[in-house]
Amino acid sequence: MSPPDIELISVKNLHKSFGVTKVLRGLNFTVRSGQIHALLGGNGAGKSTMIRIITGGIRKDDGEITFSSSNAAEPKIAVVHQELALLPDLSVAENIALVHAASGRSIVRPRQQAEIAHAALSLIDPQLAARDLHLKASELSMHEGQIVEIARALSTGAEVLLLDEPTANLTAGETERLFLVLRRLVREKNIGIVFVSHRMKEIRQLCDVCTIIRDGLTAVDAAPLSTLTDSEIVHQMGQPAHRDEQRKRRNITTAEGSIMLKGPTGDVLVRKGQILGLAGAPAGPSQLIALLNGTGRASRWSIAAEGWPSHPLSPRQAIDLGIGYVSGDRHTKGVLAQLPIVDNVLASRRIRERRYWVHGEERNECMELVQRLKLKAGSIWDLPGTLSGGNQQKLLVARWLAMPLKLVVFEEPTRGVDIGTKRDIYGLIRTMAEQGTTVVWWSTENVELLELCDEILAFDTEGHAKGLLPPDRFNEDALADLTGMAA
Ligand SMILES: Nc1ncnc2c1ncn2[C@@H]1O[C@H](COP(=O)(O)OP(=O)(O)OP(=O)(O)O)[C@@H](O)[C@H]1O
Ligand SMILES: [Mg+2]
Q: Which Gene Ontology molecular-function terms are recorded (predicted)?
């Protein structure tokens, strides 16, 4: 007997405005059991807003939301929000057990907490499950925090899972494991899943149907993914079609301005204007990145180059040397939440030039950057908290486009950025490189590295550098082999 097909959540004619900005203007959306539903739309389309309305975080202006379930009660819903929401002072075990306690169990003892957390984490990350789960959440890396949140949601036994860009911080191997678990839950428990992502490859791997939000309305309503091509999806999102340009391979040979990165297992020569990709789980790349951004005094990597110290001693010194850094953790290490967009964009220039005022010229420059990155904001005087996730990310990238640099380090700069704007960011970074800035780029999205880089340094899951991949060996399988992760 086939499992019952239930309409678990039905959203009809949903309206929501923030001030004068109308975000949702009559949106329809349905979550059915036994299905993985991709929720798509450009940055600022209103995906997270709809999820926050469904889960009660914010209020709708108008419209109807109905919930139904096989056992008459409302379906239990678990959500992974786009921005991490662990309680920093509670332990990993407490953070996970919390939702179990909230769902009816009165007291959960520490032993039980650890058991619940262990079982939850074992679902997707046995290594993390084996760690001391009394560790505080604030001691986790962002990437581990993401896994804890996902594990927590998966372990609640919910009938509906709402996952708002859960894979944005995960490596290819972790994503693959997550997908296996999600598929199994749908098959065995007949749950309904909503999955938000800007990574087309993942969407195709995982999802059955897709809904696309455009201009606050439902442009595509639960269409089977097999009936849409990638370019139709991009078009329905209201984004310009992307031309598949053949990447011009550059052959940079000048030695002037080169930097030698000396590592524990070998040296890497990076030439001026070259784009060096870093592939693999964060453990390896983070050591090298820390060296470059001035937080890695004790890093096992060092620099050997004319006029450069072997280890920049502080972020300030790194900036003074002409090194820019876009942190992958926009939440705690990037966005200046208390300052308006304009100050966020001009922050690094101010540090470098020690200037603290905005005059007309700067304001125009900020406006220009905002337009180049299609940063969707009410005004440059708004606070970053009013921006969607992808637009906050663009803010961090904009910050370093406003000044000349010798070298720039990007940690997942396109995390959460929509497909159309990703191309714009690639273009801007390529231009920076062509103008002589050396680029070091870490990404967990291997396809992105293969598209953009001149050479790729791969790290295995233990954090060891496994060698440099030249362009003639660029392919997904080679990279998957070296990083020890599925392509
Ligand atoms: N608290 C708020 N105040 C003002 N505007 C807001 C607020 N929250 C969201 N917005 C605006 O609502 C719009 C939709 O944002 P939302 O976060 O839902 O987008 P999204 O589709 O999730 O985008 P992304 O892919 O970038 O995450 C954006 O233009 C955003 O600036
Ligand atoms: Mg969002």
A: ATP binding
